[in-house]
Design goal:
This protein has about 525 residues and is mainly β. The chain is about 0% helix and about 45% strand. The strands form 13 sheets. The chain has an 8-stranded mixed β-sheet, with no helix packed on it.
Length: about 525
């Protein structure tokens, strides 16, 4: 038998409980029935801030927490669909479903909300051939139409037009004489005139804008006892300048000058004051930049006169022809030839190059190429212009017979008539309208692309297309703003791009009052 000494034995205290280390704060000691002096392992988490997740649950870690919290989630109610709650926030965004939007020329407001889909309705009419050329609509570019909504429509698209007056200038008394054809382009309207103030005589050139406000003027005195020419003006091909012929006369001796002026501010570019004895009836500019002064020359009879200037204003050549008068001369656009519709109702073609001296080949400025009698067509001659679409010269006058377009013929007076002649002197056709006229006036529009026929205030004037001689526009003869009963006019200048024209007109039976007015076209539905 062996006996252990008591001093070698350890006796545990009488502790009880089933607390585990994981139940006691880390670092703290405790005793249980298991053992004494045990150390806790439960972590102290302090004050934690947890972030909510939209993709899964957020696990709260075990441990001792002191004021731990879940961070507030900012949930805008208008961003949450109605019927849905997020973080106790009820949504207010409406459910719009899947609507259909129709094509519209105006912006359409899309109401805020939730859309499950939707459709932008197509339109089978949105095709290139239905859209103005160069314009994009719904991702489709137009390729055929020349005109769109709100555009001015050129002649030929509508049969009947109304003329509305923009402004009118009155020149009362016998002291003013206005040129027959003012000049206008790009909202600049220019007219030359002579003026006598009771003591001195002047030639004036005045420029107005589209509102009728004067922009600038040039004034040149006639000098001494001379009379002032009313002059003539022409807008340049570059649309930035105006050529002006001014001067004076004494008896049958005339002395016109030529000046180039900047259209925007009236500044003089150059001034040619060389003496030439002819009237200043009209001006033309050809593609080579040369300027042509058309007029008349008087001795014992009347001659047509033509003078050629260089682009810088240098006088190059001058020629006269009998019988005739200046406004019935037209220069071919390339400057190679000019045509005269003379007083014997003959159309004659002349060389426009060289000088008046005969060269080695027998050529000279003014050498006649051919002559064509048109006396069987015309009873009186009026003028000539070039038709670029045809490459032909057109001459106008009055006649009792014309190629009608199905409307009634009025033989009570001369009717305007137009003859087309090619460069070889062969008559190509005749065109006319049922419109009585004292002179058979015909005015070219847009460099001869169209032409106006008729000057009476009691019958319908017309516009025709040069290329096919078709009537493309008519005017209300009773409209007092147009060619009404209290006015008569037969020479116009067309600002084609702005559908406007300027005209000088006297009151019938009153030679002492003249008018300069600006008109514009509007469609007529009456």
């Amino acid at each position: 038998m062996s006996i252990r000494r008591l001093g070698d034995m350890r006796i545990k205290p009488g502790a009880s409980g089933d607390v585990q280390s994981s139940d006691v704060r880390a670092g703290k000691t405790f005793s249980s029935e298991i053992d004494t002096d045990q150390v806790g392992t439960l972590p102290d988490r302090g004050a934690m801030t947890l972030t909510a997740s939209g993709t899964g649950q957020v696990v709260i870690p075990d441990g001792i927490h002191s004021n731990s919290k879940i961070a507030q989630v900012n949930v805008p109610a208008d961003k949450v669909l109605t019927g849905t709650a997020i973080a106790s926030v009820a949504g207010t965004m409406p459910n719009r479903g899947a609507p259909t939007f129709n094509v519209s020329p105006n912006n359409q407001t899309i109401t805020p909300g939730y859309y499950t889909g939707g459709t932008v309705a197509g339109d089978v009419n949105i095709r290139p051939e239905n859209i103005k050329k160069g314009v994009w609509i719904g991702g489709v570019q137009g390729n055929s139409l020349e005109y769109g909504a709100g555009d001015w429509i050129s002649f030929g698209r509508i049969q009947k037009y109304r003329l509305l007056q923009r402004w009118e200038k009155t020149f009362a008394g016998s002291n003013y004489v206005l040129e027959g054809r003012p000049s206008c382009v790009d909202n600049r309207y220019v007219c030359s005139m002579s003026y006598y103030d009771g003591t001195n005589r002047f030639t004036l050139l005045i420029c107005w804008d589209v509102t009728g406000t004067e922009v600038w003027r040039h004034t040149v005195p006639a000098g001494g006892s001379n009379y002032a020419l009313e002059g003539t003006s022409l807008i340049s091909r570059d649309r930035a300048h105006v050529f002006w012929s001014y001067g004076n006369s004494s008896g049958n001796t005339y002395s016109p000058k030529l000046r180039k002026i900047r259209l925007s501010d009236g500044a003089t570019i150059w001034d040619n004051v060389e003496y030439i004895d002819q009237t200043a009836g009209a001006l033309q500019e050809t593609a080579d930049g040369k300027i042509w002064l058309i007029g008349s020359f008087y001795t014992s009879t009347t001659y047509s006169a033509i003078t050629r200037y260089s682009a810088s204003g240098t006088l190059e050549a001058k020629q006269t022809h009998s019988p005739g008068n200046g406004p019935q001369i037209v220069v071919q656009p390339d400057g190679q030839y000019y045509y005269l519709f003379d007083d014997n109702r003959r159309l004659r073609k002349f060389q426009a190059t060289g000088t008046t001296s005969v060269d080695a080949g027998g050529n000279y400025f003014g050498k006649e190429q051919w002559s064509l009698s048109l006396s069987a067509i015309f009873r009186s001659g009026q003028g000539a212009f070039w038709a670029p679409a045809l490459g032909q010269v057109c001459v106008s006058g009055g006649s009792y017979a014309y190629a009608n377009n199905g409307e009634a013929v009025n033989t009570g007076a001369l009717a305007p008539q137009l003859a087309f002649v090619n460069q070889s002197g062969v008559l190509q056709g005749v065109s006319g309208v049922p419109c009585t006229s004292s002179t058979g006036v015909c005015t070219p529009i847009n460099d001869g692309e169209f032409y106006f026929m008729g000057d009476s205030s009691v019958v319908t004037p017309y516009i025709l297309r040069t290329s096919d001689k078709a009537v493309v526009a008519r005017f209300d003869p009773g409209d007092p703003n147009a060619f009404g009963a209290n006015r008569s006019g037969k020479s116009f200048s067309w600002d084609f791009g702005n559908c406007a024209f300027a005209i000088t007109r006297p009151i019938p039976n009153n030679g002492t009052t003249q008018y300069l007015s600006l008109h514009y076209l509007n469609t007529y539905f009456g």
